[in-house]
Design goal:
Blueprint: H1 2-6, H2 22-33, E1 37-38, H3 39-42, H4 48-55, E2 59-62, E3 66-67, E4 77-78, H5 88-99, E5 103-108, H6 119-132, E6 137-141, H7 149-156, E7 162-164, H8 174-177, H9 183-196, E8 202-208, H10 214-226, E9 231-236, H11 253-265, E10 270-273, H12 283-292
Parallel strand pairs: 2-5, 3-4, 5-6, 6-7, 7-8, 8-9, 9-10
Antiparallel strand pairs: 1-2
Length: 293
Amino acid sequence: MAKQEEYIRKPEWLKIKLNTNDSYTGLKKMMRDKKLHTVCEEARCPNIHECWAERKTATFMILGDVCTRACRFCAVKTGLPTELDRQEPERVAESVKLMGLKHTVITAVARDDLKDGGAEIFAETVRAIRRATPFTSVEVLPSDMGGKEENLRALMDAKPDILNHNIETVKRLSPRVRARATYERSLEFLRRAKEMQPKIPTKSSLMIGLGETKEEIIETMDDLRAVNVDIMTIGQYLQPTKSHLKIVKYWSPEEFDELRDIALSKGFKHCESGPLVRSSYHADEQVNAAQEK
């Protein structure tokens, strides 16, 4: 079975247009000059050329570039982090201002080595951006921060404009796909976030193509709606390296359209669904669409 999966041909709709214009190269240089990381690069996002070269958007990855978890779908380096840069929030805020962003996404590696899971640096990054550019909306995309309520509260007290936490996969596959994180803990994290700050929209992302069924995807939608998640994104899993989980199925654009319609019928205020969709893909449009609802 594994040998057969290895040779599934990538369909035409997953071909990516490369664009390395001045905006792309300038943004890349700024990230290096400021000693900042982006999930766009570290996770090998297929949309990096569109976002950097055309939309001039980027998802900042704070707390270093070494993750304490080794999820079998993710390309980010794993190990024992040593970096904890107290000046990072100010550098991120300065970069957001220089880019003139109206909306920015802040994510991070999982830092299970830290008692607060990185909540303090996360919260300070939100506040630093607000000081530097008050009209920029800030979306945060944290790990479950060890499932500790006080860590989540420290982040939510900074009042980000949107709280994004990814469920990643369906319940049956979660133990095989994720490391340390659990399906139930993610749902509880999203539930608590909404209870702490009811007016802050919550969001979650699902990647498909790992062997889940349509019925399991719909079950995940129901579970997310049960904890009042407002926005959902659905995208195709792409295998980063040969050592990561293999792709079982490429879902077609028509199937993604159908899943989006189902999600909206379930009560999500917005659903971005497509083969190349990632959690922060068109994030500015997602939050605007949800606010209009």
